[in-house]
Task: structure prediction
Amino acid sequence: MSHEIRTPLNGVIGMSSLLVDTNLTAEQEEFATTIKSCGESLMSVINDILDFSKIESGNMELESEDFDLRTCIEEVLDVFAGGAAKTGIDLVYEIDYNVPSQIVGDMHRLRQVLMNLVSNAIKFTNKGEVFMAYTLPNHQL
Result:
């Protein structure tokens, strides 16, 4: 079922991306950008729902690859930086010095979880900052 949902939505996202790159009035560009953004948001929701179905059925497979934790976190925060700045919210993170910069895990799934957490944190924060900290539990030190 995922193919049947994603294919037409990818078409909408792709065509709206092409449309944004043409000569448009400011109003038309805003409309096309909104279509693209909403399509990407809908794709994210669909992917989350499909992933949840995989988890429930026991078919979720996690990747095991080396990746840079700091880069992963910074990329997630970069996605929200503009919107957070407009509302006066600071995005801050801290990684304990004991946490290695290169870790093994599923970067895609971690990014997905962090995106959801940061999005909700920003949504429910009126002022101040959203702070993300990563430390190792005491037994791993």
In short: Helices lie at 2-20, 26-57, 69-86, 107-123. The chain has four helices and four strands.
